[in-house]
Each structure stands twice: as C-alpha cells, then as structure tokens.
Amino acid sequence: MRRGFRRTTLIITFCIAVLTGIGLSRKVSLDTGLWLIVLLPSVILLKRKNTTALILAIILGLALGLWRGSIYMQKLQDIKLLSGQKVVIEATALADSVYGYRYQMEFNAASVTLLEPNQKSLAGSIKVSGFGAPMVYRGDRVKVEGKLYPMRGSNQARIAYAKLTRVGADSSWINSLTRKFGAGVRNALPEPASSLGLGILIGQRNGLPKEITEQLTIVGLVHIVAVSGYNVTILSRAVARLRLGSKYQRLMLSLFLISLFVLVTGFSASIVRAAIVAGLSLIAWYFGRRISGVTLIAFTAALTGLVKPFYVWSDLGWYLSFLAFFGVLVVAPLLASRLFSRPPRVLAMILIETLCAEIMTLPLIIMTFTQVSLIGLLANLLVVPLVPIAMLLSAVAGLAGAAIPEYAGWFAWPANLLLTYMLDLVRLLAEVPFASLRTTISPAPMIGLYGAVLLLVIILQRRLLKSKHDVKNWLGV
C-alpha cells in the first residue's frame, strides 16, 4: 500500500489555501511577506508528500494569499478615501462605449491614474458614464472628471455624470480589426440578428434591444451573448476534428485560435479564465498526461485570484465561471458515464455539459438575482446546440461584410435564417406563462445545496471506480 499523498493533493490543497488567505485578508491584517521569505527554503520538504508536506502547503498557501490580499487591501483603501470626492483621472477604456442612463456614454475602464486631488495609480477597474466625448473606443485613453464612489462587483468604483475628454486614440491593430469585423457583421445582417451574432461570436451585446435582453434573461439564455468558456470549448473541439498531420499542429492551431480569440474579445475576465483552463488541458494532452478537473479549477482559481484579489472578494462572474467549470469538467463526465456505456456523441455531451453548468450556477443565481427561469433547461436544450453553427455562420457573414460588402447578403442569408429562428424561439418561450419565478434563498441553504451536489459527486465516483485505491486516485490522495 502506497503511503503519503499524491502531488495533485498538495497542489489542490495549496491552491485552496491561497484562496482562503486572499479571502481572510479582508478581515485579517498580517505582514506575511517576511514569513514567506523564511518559509521558502522549506519548499523542498514538499517532495516527501507526507503529512508535513501537506501542512506546509497549507501554511505557504495561506501566507501567499494573505500577503497578496493585504497589498490590494491597501489599494482598495485608496479608493475608499476618495469616496464622494470630485476627482480627475485618466483611464483606458476596456470596451467601446454605449449610450446608457439618460443618454450618457458608458464604458468600463482600467489602468487608472489619479491626477487630482493628488497623483497616484488606482487598482482595479472603474465604471464610467458621462458626457463630452462623442465616442470612446476600446483602448482609448480618456480623461474623466467627476465624483468617485466605491462599489462592489467586477468594478471597484464608479463615476457618473462625468466630463469625458478623449486624450489618446487607440492604435492597436487588433482593436481596429475587431471594429472592422463588427461593422462587417452589421453590414451583412439586419438588426437584431447582427447584434445577436456579435453577442454569440465575441460577446459584444451592447446593440441588443432591451426587450430581447430581457427575454434572454427570462428563458435563462443570456449567457449565450456573454463571451465565455463555451466559446473556447467550441474552438478547441473544432480543431480536434480537423484532420491535421500531427498532434503538434493541432496543439499550435488550437493555442493560436484561443490566443486570437482572447485578443479580439479584449481580455474579458471570463474568457481569460477559460483560456487558461483550455491551454493547460491542451498542453497536458500533447504530452500524454491528464489533469483532473478539480486540479485545473483549483489552479486557475488561485492564479486569477493572485493576479486580482478583487475577484475573490466581490466578483460574481468569477464565482459563476468556476461553478460552471466544475459542472462541465467534473459533474458532466460523471453523469455521462452513468447514462452511457460508451462516450456519447458531441451533441449529447453538449447537452449534458449545459445541464450540469446550469445546475451548478443556479443556487448562486437565485440568491443574487432573486429570479429563476422555469423553462431555462428546455430553452438551453433547444438553443445551445445551435450556438457553434451560429458562430461559424456569423463569422462568415462578418468576413463577407467587411471584405465584399456588395455581395455580403449572399453569404449572410444562412446566418440570418438561423439567428432569426433563435430570436423567434426565445421570444416564443419568453411568452410562456410563468416562464420565470421571483424567489430567493439565503446563503446557508445555498451552501447546503452545493454541499449536497459535492456529496452526490463523491458518491457517483465511488460507485464508478472499482476499488478503494482508484477512489484515492480520483480524490488525489
């Protein structure tokens, strides 16, 4: 009988400890930098893979998380001290601006530099709305004058009714290419099909009418117009089906397409997380290794949390991403193995993954948004399998609209037909009586539901694996 722990157990334990340390840093203020330096030489003890190594992994993870979190707590304090004050900042737009409340130009911005009342860099991103600049494009440098207020969520502060001055135009070729492609889609497709196509393809849903956005929310399909890990999965699977000469060629093409997709979508937080997971999986596949879903999720969560502790503290999208990852990478394979005696076909697996992702995110969505779609599962089963085809046809339409606009209609009619069908289906489902229900749950029942799902996963795995030794392998011990 083998003694000690597996390497994956130490990795998962360390990653969970890092996330715990980041979370505790909001309430606990410790100078762990010195402790990290002292403990670093003891990393060699991790090779033993025994109880001492496990305890050391926990201590190192907690220290690293507390140290990184304390740095960002100081930066967050800088924002809190400016609450309600009139400030002047310069920031880089993260997306093209849209017209929002009372016809203000709205966009999110990062790389924030405070100019007045003093000069310093501010961490995180800021939601900006105001007047002055006729248009702000992704990558533009903008001067913003207005009152700053801290906020929770993916943005750390907001400035409304601001005076906007564009002080630097974006010169990135990739942003220019994205805008040209977006214009091509709009040239080739009528509204609202063009906005739906852009939402499905690159997550650009600013042009969708409010009525359609509400309908997508009612039927539980708003995620199809939010760029996510599903888009990356589609790209990876498409390359896997190509008959290329070698594994190396498939690996390089997959990594290239994923990198290009990240560039085009503007380093969206959700797509970066998905790209890390997909990239690690592809590299492991190339070298003939297999990384468990739990290890991938824990490592990616710890890595993104260290890069930006704000995610762990208040970003709902961050939590929804990893809950969906858990559903797709851990729960879906277990469910598929129980339902099928052999690996299911692509369509069946997509449906199973969609179901599992929906189940894993549902309790948190109900608690946060106090709304649940009663026909969400049906809507996802009818629409989600069409998304890969819609992505391909929308891409063809956009390329035709950008390169040969006079003939774009001939290339765009399949996309228009499919997107119109999807819109009609969403509209029809949204009109079903009691399609959504207003309800909520408190944090305790939500945690209990996730605990029940985790227990069910462990039970399913125990039944599937043939011996106690295999169970330990799955758990990583």
Whole-angstrom Rg: 24 Å
Low-confidence stretches: 467-477
Instruction: Please give the number of β-strands.
Output: 9
Secondary structure class reads alpha+beta
Q: How much of the sequence is in beta strands? A: 5-15%
Shape: globular
End-to-end separation in angstroms reads: 12 Å
Structural domain count? 3
Whole-number mean pLDDT: 82
- Total helix count? 18
How are the strands of the largest sheet arranged?
A: 1-3-5-7-6
Indicate the percent of residues in helices: 55-70%
Give a written overview of the molecule.
- The protein has 18 helices and 9 strands.
- It is α+β, with helices and mostly antiparallel strands.
- It folds into 3 domains: about 70 residues, no CATH class; about 90 residues, OB fold (Dihydrolipoamide Acetyltransferase, E2P); about 300 residues, no CATH class.
- A 5-stranded mixed barrel has the order 1-3-5-7-6.
- The C terminus is likely disordered.
